[in-house]
Amino acid sequence: MSKSGLNLCQRKYALDILNEAGFTDCKAASTPIVPGHHLMHGDGVALQDVGSYRRLVGRLLYLTATRPDISYAVQQLTQFIDAPTENHLVAAHRVLRYIKDAPGQGIFYPADNSIQLNSFSDSDWASCMESRRSITGYCVFLGNALVSWKSKKQATVSKSSAEAEYRALATTVCEIQWLHFLLKDLHVQLPKPATLFCDSKSAVAIAENHVFHERTKHIEIDCHIVRERVSQGLIKLLPVSSENQTADGFTKPLAISPFRAFVSKLGVQDLHAPTYGRVIKRSI
């Protein structure tokens, strides 16, 4: 903690995970998951020691409380808790190698921050190779400070990318509503509606169209949630380009360059890095 703001990190906890797994002196990785790599059940030889995999993934889940950059990778690993294989363990070790690169990385909350909610919603349509369910990803900022994020598989199969994006929108709107109530209980008044950015023109069009069509009846509940909050002035829905979609890293594995851009937009920093002294601010 300093005059510039508050840094939350779990460096000792991250180092304990590396030490327990024997990865203290491992070669660091630039990303937590290999781009284009898909994990599946039964992919590889089943692990004899299932408990070690479950314990490792459980510890990584706790680490995501201050490391949003590993949220997607850990979400993928949790899908195979029931029957992990050697390939799944290798993927978990990849996350450890990424953590080794910057174990002190955490979230920074600047002292001179504005009271305005800005959020990003995204989905990766039918990305699960086994169930063809989509991945929902969102992140919510209070000013420039990241306060909420999620990477989660959707409960149902979406028939189109627009439907997947709209379900992600509904999930994000519910989170914004909860944060709005929380801030209200803390006697914090938001000066403007929360801004919600989405890179799907189809989903934005559905939200702005007050007439239900046959093609959107199967997502009518989600439509009501989003449209009602827009009409109440709780949120303001705006389009954003895919290149500026901050939530992109919560829905899919990224290559090195876009992944680094994703991390910088989250406003995270490594307090223990030699070059510490500035924060890369998120750009909308």
Q: Which helices and strands, and how do they pair?
A:
Layout: E1 5-8, H1 11-21, H2 50-63, H3 71-78, H4 86-101, E2 105-110, E3 117-124, E4 135-142, E5 145-153, H5 161-185, E6 194-198, H6 201-208, H7 220-231, E7 235-239, H8 256-265, E8 268-270
Parallel strand pairs: 3-6, 6-7
Antiparallel strand pairs: 1-2, 2-8, 3-4, 4-5
Describe the structure.
With 284 residues, the protein is α/β, with parallel strands linked by helices. The chain has two domains: 8-105, no CATH class; 113-244, Ribonuclease H-like superfamily/Ribonuclease H (Nucleotidyltransferase, domain 5). The chain has helices at 11-21, 50-63, 71-78, 86-101, 161-185, 201-208, 220-231, 256-265, and strands at 5-8, 105-110, 117-124, 135-142, 145-153, 194-198, 235-239, 268-270. A hairpin with a 2-residue loop joins strand 4 and strand 5. Helix 1 packs antiparallel against helix 2 (50-63) and helix 2 (50-63) packs antiparallel against helix 3 (71-78).
